[in-house]
Amino acid sequence: MSANQKIYMPSTPMTPETGRYGILTGFDPGTRTLEAGFRIAPQFAPLTTDVVLDKDVPVTLRDGVTIHVDVFRPVGSEPVPVIMAWSPYGKGQGTSPSVMGVFGLVGLDNSIVSGLEKFEGPDPAYWCARGYAICNPDIRGVVDSEGDSVLWDRQEGRDAYDLIEWLGVQDWSNGKVAMSGTSYLAVSQWFTAAEQPPHLAAINPWEGVSDVYRDLVLRGGMPDHGFARQLRDFSFWGKGRKEDIIAEADEHPLADELWAEKVPAFDKITVPAYVVASYSNTLHTAGTFRAWRRMASPDRWLRIHNSQEWPDYYDETNREDLRRFFDHYLRGEDNGWESTPRVRYSVLDLQGADRVDVPAGQFPPADVAPTRFYLDGNTRGLSTTAPTTEATAGYAVGSTPDDVSFVTRFEEETVLVGYPKARLWVEAKGSDDMDLFVLVQKLDRFGTPLQQFTVPNQNARVHDVTDRGGSILRYKGSDGRLRVSLRLLDEALSTDDVPAHTFDRPEKLSAGEVVDVEIDLLPVGLAFHPGEQLRLIVSASPILGTMMPAIREYTSAVNHGQHVIHTGGEHASYLQLPVQAG
């Protein structure tokens, strides 16, 4: 992508008024020792060992831009490995009102961290006490670092490469550098690992987008910019310019060269990787599993948890598990890590009986078979036998209801583990396009929808923000979406389990035309007990609402008239589910 394809807008300097300003945000170069017992603020955990802080160290990137980093490292002369946390979130942001507010929202006490960590990153208090250094950079264009900032881009991979190579040759470094963190800190790892910096020894992406077009700004080909706007407006604070991802999405609605630079080269990711995923993050889930499937690393592990990334990341058991991985690859310890199952997945029950850390050699597990459940427009049922008689079901856009559903009841214990998809024959009456939203939902034996909070906080406030949104905080089922004019499949990337679309050319509908579309849904691990039911919903509007509170809801500009779902006969629409052998 040529540089002139990017669109920039002015950044805003980081000040206390932004809510992102922390105790260590101010520019204050120098080296100091934080003694055991040091506490950055009363609500945070104290250090258990002495830690050296090298603050605001300048590092010059290959194009001459200087960024600034904070390094926390153990006291002593023994060289140590380094864990880097790459994101635009200010390196001093751990004590900011914004981060403390996020912890409060999800129900985490600030005392589980020291406040020295970057938001969503590894805590120096824990890692320095165990013989690791932590590097927190203010990346290109952020806070006091020079340059124009970019958002999830191969440029970030090149910048992170340069910092890794700088870290790898410091006199306190043992030459082994890793990356860790959730969300943005996970995404940056795909891009960095694809650049193959020689000193990068391992990565730990803990849930993150891996295709900016398909996961963030135009999921399903729809210009749903709610979270992208939040990210652009409230995550990049600096003195120069920042990339305007919304303007770029408006200017480039199809998957072109601009968006290709925002997909990492998965086939060049060869470093050992410990990948963490969930079924419930409507921003990160698809991207994490995509990267897991396509990365080339021969030494890679996947753990699929049953909660939300922040409680999972700072859980003591999970942190110790990660330390075994890093100890093996960064310290050369023969600790048995390689015998860890390559996949550990969870099966959600939604009634208090989740199973976690189920071992497998692959995902989906080898005993899973894709099984078709055919829609019947007459009975509104789902059956493994295709109806011979054609029928239709549908809705008027903007009416109540503006969706149509199909239900099946399981008479035997049934477990779904893997990738669902919907193949639907559809028709638009009164429009030349359709935005379709799909949800697979679990019902109890009485037909009541089942849901589950993913965070420790389950108070009245979280109920409020998750009733019609906040989808990453409360799991309501596996969803998917597609703009029908962008239904063309990418033959090189599509599989029977996971359809992939090119999103590079629109094919509008003509009056009376019935077309088939394949819609990928987020992967599932879901148990159904005898008598419980599964409901498939097809809708004209986002069923789950926004992924986080205070985000603008998407409204379709192409949905008009009536949506018709054709079933049976020559138009045998079906839902394909990954059914595990009993």
Structural topology:
Blueprint: E1 8-10, E2 30-34, E3 51-60, E4 66-74, E5 80-84, H1 97-106, H2 124-128, E6 133-138, H3 154-168, E7 173-182, H4 184-195, E8 200-206, H5 212-217, H6 226-235, E9 241-243, H7 245-251, H8 257-260, E10 273-278, H9 285-294, E11 300-305, H10 309-313, H11 316-330, E12 343-347, E13 355-360, E14 368-376, E15 381-383, E16 391-396, E17 403-409, E18 414-418, E19 421-429, E20 435-443, E21 452-453, H12 460-466, E22 474-475, E23 478-483, E24 515-520, E25 524-528, E26 533-539, E27 562-567, E28 574-580
Structure description:
The protein is α+β, with helices and mostly antiparallel strands and 582 residues long. The chain folds into two domains: 12-210 and 266-340, Alpha/Beta hydrolase fold, catalytic domain (Rossmann fold); 368-580, Galactose-binding domain-like (Jelly Rolls, Sandwich), CATH 2.60.120.260. Helix content is 18%, strand content 29%. The chain contains twelve helices and 28 strands. Strands 2-3-4-6-5-7-8-10-11-12-13 form an eleven-stranded mixed beta sheet, sandwiched between helices. Strands 14, 15, 16, 19, 24, 27 and 28 form a seven-stranded antiparallel beta sheet that branches. It has a four-stranded antiparallel beta sheet with strand order 17-26-20-23, with no helix packed on it. Helix 3 crosses helix 4. The longest helix is centred in the first third of the chain and has 15 residues, at 154-168. It is globular, with a radius of gyration of 24 Å. The model has no long low-confidence stretch (mean pLDDT 97).
